[in-house]
Amino acid sequence: MLHPRIADISATRHILKTFNLRASKRLGQNFLIDAGVVQAIVNAAEISEGDEVLEIGPGIGTLTQGLLEAGAKVTAVELDKKLPAVLAETLAGYENFKLVQGDILKVDLTELMPPNFKVVANLPYYITTQILLTLLEKKLPITKIVTMVQREVAERMTAAPGSKIYGAMSVAVQFRADVKVAFDVPPEKFLPRPEVTSSVVICDVRESPLKISDEEFFIKVVRAAFGQRRKTLLNSLIGAGFNREKISAALGVAEISADRRAETLSIAEFARLAENLSVEA
Question: Is residue 34 classed exposed, middle or buried when 0-12, 13-18 and 19+ CB atoms within 10 A define those classes?
């Protein structure tokens, strides 16, 4: 290694003290302090020599170092303006590292990243869902996303139809990726300790096998269906502004009962409903 391992509580405290840093609550910063967890994330991402990796929020370089040591070419996007100076020191000498200071939701990733790249990140919990869905909805040439999220979010991402936590996010993510939870990470693996348990989730991105002519409309229908979970599918869609007669006709063609609730529909059923509703529209 070019530098001492950053994923260590003593090393992390030394870096924070040296640069007069404090974890930003506003940016949801919690620094990983366990080398075993870092290696487990690198393993989950199946990093090989020369892999192109986008890291979101590298912080002080803890996970970044693990990716670089595994041979990845890492492009990191960091929002916190104080951290580029820190990373210039903690990751000095790693030629396969590039830092971009900016907002991941505003950076043009089509220009920044080559085809077939992976995303590996310890995402800030307050914006996890928005970042994940943005990455997937843009249809970027991503092969795999491995990210640390709040366990509650991981459970929603992987929820199956019929579950109380199955919702619009479950459908949106599973529509575009094969999703599984790799492992949980307890609060004591971070500095400062978060109030919740984290989970590392693997999303193997793929082209949807479902025939959907308008994905934006599909997602609109899914979100409308889950907008009022206690109501039937028919009433939820009416409440979202869809025409009653057109909904009834679309449900009939799709062979879906109007009395069902959104959480009982599979992704394939949502696809059939959206396709028929777009025709009726």
Answer: middle
Between β-strands 177-185 and 198-205, what pairing exists: parallel, antiparallel or unpaired?
antiparallel
Report cis status (omega within 30 of 0) of the bond before 192: yes
Q: Is residue 238 within a helix (H) or strand (E), and if so which, with residue range?
A: helix 233-239
Alpha helix positions (H), 9-126: 9-18, 35-44, 62-69, 83-90, 109-112
What value, to the nearest 5°, has the Cα angle with vertex 259 and ends 257 and 265? 60
Contact, 199 vs 122, CB < 8 A? Answer: no
Cα separation, 43 vs 45, whole angstroms: 5
Distance between CA atoms of residues 170 and 185, nearest Å: 21
Measured on CA atoms in the order 275, 279, 280, 281, is the torsion positive or negative? positive
CB 212 within 8 A of CB 218: yes
Q: Give the per-residue SS3 of 210-240.
A: CCCCCHHHHHHHHHHHCCCCCCCHHHHHHHC
Alpha helices in 115-167 (DSSP H): 128-137, 151-158
- pLDDT (tens digit per residue) in 239-266: 999 999 999 999 999 999 999 999 999 9
Q: Which of 5-9, 22-26, 124-128, 178-182 has the lowest mean pLDDT?
A: 22-26
Cα 93 from chain centre: 30
Going by DSSP bridges, is the β-strand pair 117-122/52-56 parallel, antiparallel, or unpaired? parallel
CA-to-CA distance for 40 and 46, rounded, in angstroms?
Answer: 10
Task: State residue 139's pLDDT score.
Answer: 87
